[in-house]
Amino acid sequence: MATTATPPTKTAKTPPAGAARPLRKPLSGGSAVVRFYRSAVGKKWVMAVTGLMLMGFVIFHLIGNLKLYLSKEEINLYGEALRDMPGHLLPRTFLLWILRSGLIVAFVLHLHSAYSLTVLNRRARPQQYQSKRDYVAANFASRTMRWTGIIVLLFLVFHLMDLTWGTTNAQWVRGDPYNNLVYSLQRPAIALVYAIGNIALAFHLYHGAWSMFQSMGVNNPRINKLRRSFATAFAGVILIGNLSFPVLIQLNVVGLKCPHTEPTTAPCKA
């Protein structure tokens, strides 16, 4: 009597020892934009683009503050011009708050993408082919970015309290940015805080400007020298410009002019 052979049963294949395992499950659900942002590549792109936006704000903020060296009237008129943009076409401060809202969104996305990438990096393990020297260098750069980012965040909160809201500056007067800045930086402790905050900002900008192009896929050895030169020049300009304010005010090169006079944009005769 013939017997029928039973078909072989399929057994689950187990990955060989030492084989790389996926760090996370494939992304699914949500719109294409959400899925892209949830990926490591998407977070790097968001971090790079928002970083570029914040770099633009930093350089324009410095250019506006440099009007301090022209006169009290120039920097105060600059402040009024920001609040009156674009003249009588929109209500006062309307466009300014739109720009502020965009910067706030960019800042929040920048922080979230940075935190998310940090979590992903902690879950990852250095590959076997990666040298110890390269891993230590990458880890040092990552740690530097995290710590300078935290310092800059704390400094930003204090900066807003000091010169925008006036909660830490007893002499603060709305509409008089010139004397507000001088009053603040005449205090040695506050001048030191500004110096530390701006040094941390310069380091953060240098690493950010260097890695921003790589995050967006621009990583050609022929332009890497140009990337480093750009990062160095940009961070250097911001550092020198921002440090000049506490240094020159502490040296009494820049002093008070007609404090608490109204209107603050009128020529100072004192």
Describe this structure in words.
By secondary structure, the chain is mainly α. The termini are far apart. It is built from eight helices and no strands. The protein has helices at residues 32-38, 40-65, 72-84, 94-123, 132-164, 177-185, 188-215, 221-250. Helix content is 65%, strand content 0%.
Main pleated sheet: none
Low-confidence stretches: 134-138
The appropriate CATH architecture is Up-down Bundle
Write down the secondary-structure element order: HHHHHHHH
CATH first level: which class? Mainly Alpha
Radius of gyration: 26 Å
Can you count the beta strands?
0
- Put simply, the count of helices is 8
CATH topology: 3 helical TM bundles of succinate and fumarate reductases
- What proportion strand? under 5%
Helix content: 55-70%
> On the 0-100 scale, what is the average pLDDT?
82
What distance separates the N and C termini? 121 Å
Shape: globular
| Overall number of domains | 1
| Multimerization state | single chain
Helix/strand structural class: mainly alpha
